[in-house]
Amino acid sequence: MNSAANAAAALHRPETDPTPIFEHFRGMHGSELLTAAVAHFDLFGRLQQQPLDFASLRQALQLEERPAHVLLTALRAMGLLQETDGKLALTPLAAEHLVPGGPLDCGDYIGLAAQTPGVLTMVRLLKTNRPLGSDDSEEGGAAFIYRDGIKSAMEAEASARHFTLALAGRAKNVAPHLAEAVSLAGAKLLLDIGGGTGIYSHALLQKNPDLKAIVFDRPEVLKIAGEMAEQYGVTDRCQLVGGDMFADEIPAGADVILLSNILHDWDKPECQQVVDRCAAALAPGGRLLIHDVFLDDALDGPLPIALYSASLFSFTEGRAYSGAEYREMLTAAGLTPQPIVPTLVHCGVLAGVK
Ligand SMILES: C[S@@+](CC[C@H](N)C(=O)[O-])C[C@H]1O[C@@H](n2cnc3c(N)ncnc32)[C@H](O)[C@@H]1O
């Protein structure tokens, strides 16, 4: 048992900003999406014929809405597509260099990567709209997500531990910034839905000595949250509750509910369901905190978030959303959105007040 006196500090801010490391890691998706667009979807050839609105282009590419957003947002962020009068068109850069058969076309060069494993996987995911690990032919189940009817890696001890601890590196860096950015003065109970390691809760508990927290997640994941609570010396104020946020009762009466990196794992109807359920469970006057990344409201960048969106798309049933999309969800749940407060690694907090 770790006493509070020799507990690890969850409030230790990194001396250097790890954001570029995450950007380099996610950068592979830029290459995959560009190559897919050029060599598998003939996207630039199609748009050379005529600009198309999102729905028509999506139909022409035979993509469902989520993969179409991931692909087209990334290409807009790369400066290859632009929206004019509601239609997507080639930018001068794409028109000069990516239209098949053009005098300065670089498409065959990009096509050198057409059959590489990463590109082929991305093309399959875009076409099927299913995350890695979710097919019956694949072992293990999808990472980070659980709902009735899907094969989830979060239900088996070893894979739940593997994926949960994988997020600890980011959480340890970002949590001190979150604890600094969000004042919980006066709050008595924090509910951390899908809390994973619980590190964000542990940092908030260390920062706010009168606060108590509930970390709500799948039972196998909570084993790690319990170990971490010991390391950070907050076990006496941190309760672990196992459940399914879509089906089980959300503990009622918290002043603050945290959805840290949760909604980006889900498609819009599931996001709305979670936001609605959290809003109903909040105490009057309470806050729902969406801690996540935010695309521009026009869904045309920034590029690092657009590439992270492809990563989220690959692993889960979600993607990155814009501030406007999240504000719409909060408003539909009867909450009043507040301005976004940045934390670290492109993340920020968007609060909705009940
Ligand atoms: C991407 S992780 C985020 C973890 C942590 N909040 C963070 O920011 O690092 C998503 C978390 O949601 C949990 N989760 C997914 N589906 C869930 C469900 N239906 N009910 C409860 N928790 C769920 C996962 O087990 C996982 O810990």
TrEMBL record:
GO biological process: methylation
InterPro entries per record: COMT-like, COMT_C, SAM-dependent_MTases_sf, WH-like_DNA-bd_sf, WH_DNA-bd_sf
E.C. number(s) listed in UniProt: 2.1.1.210
Protein keywords: Methyltransferase, S-adenosyl-L-methionine, Transferase
Domain annotation O-methyltransferase C-terminal: ranges: 157-335
Single GO molecular function: hydroxyneurosporene-O-methyltransferase activity
Protein's recorded name: Demethylspheroidene O-methyltransferase
Organism: Blastopirellula retiformator
Organism classification: Bacteria, Pseudomonadati, Planctomycetota, Planctomycetia, Pirellulales
